[in-house]
Amino acid sequence: EATVSLxxxxxxxxxxxxxxxxxxxxxxxxxxxxxxxxxxxxLMDDEVFRLARESSEFAQYADPIPEKTAASLMIEFDxxxxxxxxxxxxxxxxxxxxxxxAFEVIxxxxxxxxxxxxxxxxxxxPLLMGLDGDPKPYPxxxxxxxxxxxxxxxxxSFEDVLVDHGTSAAYFAHAGSGTLxxxxxxxxxxxxxxxxxxxxxxxxxxxxxxxDGAFSGEHGDGLAxxxxxxxxxxxxxxxxxxxxxxxxxxDWRMNPGKVVYRDDDPTDMRDNLRYGADYSSIEPATKLDFxxxxxxxxLVELCNGCGNCRQPDQDxxxxxxxxxxxxxxxxxxxxxxxxxAISGELPEEELYSERFQExxxxxxxxCKGCMNDCPTGVDMAKLKTEVKHQAHQHDDxxxxxxxxxxxxxxxxxxxxxxxxxxxxxxxxxxxxxxxKILGIAADRELPTFEAESFxxxxxxxxxxxxxxxxxxxxxxxxxTYTNYSHPSTGKAAVTVLEAANVHVxxxxxxxxxxxxxxxxxFLDLAEKRARRNVNALRPYVDDGWSVLFIEPSDxxxxxxxxxxxxxxxxxxxxxxxxYSVLEYVDTHxxxxxxxxxxxxxxxxxxxxxxxKAMNKDHHAVGVLRRAGYAVDPLDSxxxxxxxxxxxxxxxxxxxxxxxxxxxxxxxxxxxxxxxxPGASCRSQLGDRADAMKPPHPITKVxxxxxx
Length: 707
Description:
Layout: E1 13-20, H1 23-33, E2 40-45, H2 46-53, H3 59-62, E3 71-78, H4 85-97, E4 104-108, H5 111-122, H6 124-129, E5 136-137, H7 151-164, E6 169-174, E7 179-186, H8 191-210, H9 229-248, H10 296-301, H11 319-324, H12 331-343, H13 354-361, H14 369-373, H15 380-394, H16 399-405, H17 407-416, H18 420-424, H19 430-438, H20 454-461, E8 472-476, H21 480-485, H22 487-499, E9 502-505, H23 515-519, H24 523-542, E10 546-549, H25 552-565, H26 569-576, E11 578-580, H27 581-587, E12 602-605, H28 609-613, H29 619-626, E13 630-633, H30 652-668, E14 673-675, H31 679-686, H32 697-704
Parallel strand pairs: 8-9, 8-10, 10-11, 12-13, 12-14
Antiparallel strand pairs: 1-3, 1-4, 2-3, 2-6, 5-7, 6-7
Helix pairs in contact: 1-7, 7-8, 20-22, 22-32, 24-26, 25-26, 27-29
């Protein structure tokens, strides 16, 4: 039995970020900040800001930070300590900013403003570990802690240690508690770098003792720290540790080398390294461009084993682990096996073997959650696609994968022959035959097709807002799902856009986005389709048109994956001017031009995992709320359908298990209707017993318009 002290989460918070021209000046300000009613003081240094500015994902968060900032202190206030946030910030401003100690202050009171600053702070690890080349900021001394009032002197001495060893470090994290995460930049694939790591640690432990600090202020005394525990704890405690070990683990079998070690078998932090001086890896030739990630191998090696992908209910990553609870189905498990393959631990040919595909990669559903949620940014979806492409060069991929990769051609045929095609799949025994012949799950509802495609409807109707009178002009891309199976969703999008005085056209000479081919590893086909689309759209974009999608995965394909398939200014221009339809409406506040009926309907919103990875899933919620709906944005991950994944017989059960996590969240949400922008998500939710197929959120916006 144990009594646990619980701390309530404050209802409201505010942030003030102070910019300093010198790191030591910032450290001198920490004990002064603690004299106020603050709940946290977080440090970020210029290395974090520099990397953020160079990152397409994080540049927007670093833009407000002045370039001459050498270090910043982000001070948090919460409602349990402070009654008036603006008064509290005014007091700290008077102390730091008005006196010139800090040359700039950025205040954040709303949730959105604070989220941007926290996003920058939490980006430190993925940004730092994403540095090009083998030297990396490693965390072997990152939670050494000293009293806050001694931080300035400690950091000055720490800098001297780094200079003596010919390196530098990144500084960030919990300045308020005296726990700075300091990561020296070293190459731990090199013998000299490994020796330098041990030498720096020896000097820093001396420094920590001088300041009456702790070597492990936040984390544990594991394999990297145990070597120095006799020094840190002293002979009396060290002997006591060994005595306790003797009593409870007489043979010293449990966790050998951690916290304590035998006198005849000392722990050495240079042992058991993830890489080490003997480590080498191949850099395979790739179809996709991995330059932004530092190469294929570098992206694999970004996994540091932290295990965030094994969280049971957090963010998007990793849906297959949540459903299976198997290590091999987590991003970490897949990354470790990929690393084993490129480093020679596995035979070289194993990477492209059928066994490796089936057991390691096929169950990655390409949600892209790890791209955003993994602390170091391991993009397993991209790695999987590249390896599948290379595997196709070794072995025939099979007819089912080829069919799914060309689903646009099949859908066009299905629409042309509708309603006959819809009836064929309902014939007795047809689904069992499909499962036996093609491996398409008999229990899965198959897509239906409309005889009149969205393109055909629009061609006969034409745009209703003349170009010369329009406020904006857009090309609404006819994605496969909308065009052949859900033209009503496309019609709703046109209605909404034209209600905002937007001139809408359907682009000529475009085809499939290439998303199905990309997901199945047919990268030559995906590249061909990407090139056709970019070449067709570039002249329009240069003339001021924007490209809009109804299907989120296709929008993200243009915004992200095209930039790995193609090079040059054309793809960059088209990518930067591509939006999902509600992203465009929200970004340009087109709904301000619309008039909506009053509504008492409530909606549960399930965002698309690809858009969540790009931080673009929130736009629909804002538009729906301004359209008059009460919206509950579900804290949901991937629905489990993942395009063709949920149709494949061998994956059906896992798809349903992943879906059940979403179903439970839907059931717990007390709303009238579920909406989801992804066609696959709507299919998964609609396949539930007695469930209505959810509408696309653009449909609800169209319904709310005053006629």
